Amino acid sequence: MTDASETAGALDGLFVLDLTRILAGPTATQMLGDMGATVIKVENPKTGGDDTRGWGPHYARNADGSASDLSAYFMSSNRNKQSIAVDIATPEGQDIIRRLAARADVVIENFKPDGLVKYGLDHKTLCEAHPSLVYCSISGYGQFGPNRDKPGYDLMAQGFGGIMSITGDPDGVPMKVGVGIADVMCGMYATIGVLTALRHRDKTGEGQHVELALIDTQMAWLINEGLNYLTSGEPPTRRGNAHPNIVPYDTFEVADGHFLLAVGNDAQFVRFCDVLSLAHVASDPKFATNLARIENREALMQHIRPALTQWTKAEILEALRLVKVPAGPINTIAEALTSDQAAVRGTVREMPVEGIKGGKLKLLGNPLKFSKTPVKYKRPPPRFGQDTDAVLATWLQREDPAQD
Fold first, then answer.
1. Which listed residue (50, 183, 216, 250) is catalytic?
2. Which helix (H) or strand (E) holds 85?
3. CB 131 within 8 A of CB 207
4. CATH superfamily of 249-333
5. Can you give the pLDDT at residue 403?
6. How far apart are CA 67 and CA 75, in angstroms?
7. pTM greater than 0.90 (yes/no)
8. Residue ranges in the chain modelled with pLDDT below 50
9. Kind of pairing, strands 106-109 and 15-19?
10. What CA–CA distance (Å, rounded) separates 89 from 47?
11. What is residue 6's predicted lDDT score, i.e. its pLDDT?
């Protein structure tokens, strides 16, 4: 097997100038960095850098035990980057960014629409100056539209885009997903957009502006529930953990807790009912097909739920495994990240870092597995501005970064 350290990344040689902060943009640039791109993260010296550096309560600790500027939140999306402290509100800062953009293959930013125009760093200005540049803009509501000037946050995207209306207990309040999924998915779409634009650039020499919004991407991944509405005209409702199109597919209570059941077809349903000694239910026309089970969901639950309370989690999971009916545990994050699956698949990665207590950081690994160009873990999340002198000297040939 080839040593990953000796293998070139798929995006080696690509230069990404990262003007993003918080989560959506940094997710995209971390992904590009993981695949080998050189990512230069520009941070504001007036604010101490990316907002998330201060989003505790959990931080990597300095050698003396004090909190560093590496919050857990910041570290989640800023691996494989170099950090430079540049104030783009100043003429000197603008000149540095323009000169770096001239060397870059990709510029990614998540300022408010037109927020970079006054600095001469907007997509129109830089793309006209550098026709092969791929320039990606991420915003809350997009560069055009009735809400373009509203600030965009993950919570607002989940609320506006509909996902909260179908998340949570049927009798409870609308719920956001437990992590910033609207931001993360927007970052994933941005990665796809950038790679697509680079493919076009490599074929034609022509760059372009890639533009996307948290709201647009959130509505795009409504998937089956979005299509349920568009097909029927009926707004989906909250069902807790139940599935709108598959029954039984839900969380179920057993004697010592809860487990997950995902009966995906009618044959699995028959085997599931056999395990519970409910063969008569499987043969009942009211439940024999998935469509019938959807129409008679509540009546079916009156048979299933009492029968399951006679089992423990371990017993039901083993019994269903033996008959190949999909079922699983509901792990805590600790249980998931310390599982055998996580260990074998490289879900958690350790990276050495100087100046941090213990000398290393634990990070979530990239899930992509490449046979020829494996993901690289070259750089731990950077301290604020740590690479300013080196980057300016390397990319702008300036021995004294303070000179004009």
1. 183
2. strand 82-85
3. yes
4. formyl-coa transferase, domain 3 (3.30.1540.10)
5. 41
6. 14
7. yes
8. 1-3, 399-404
9. parallel
10. 12
11. 63
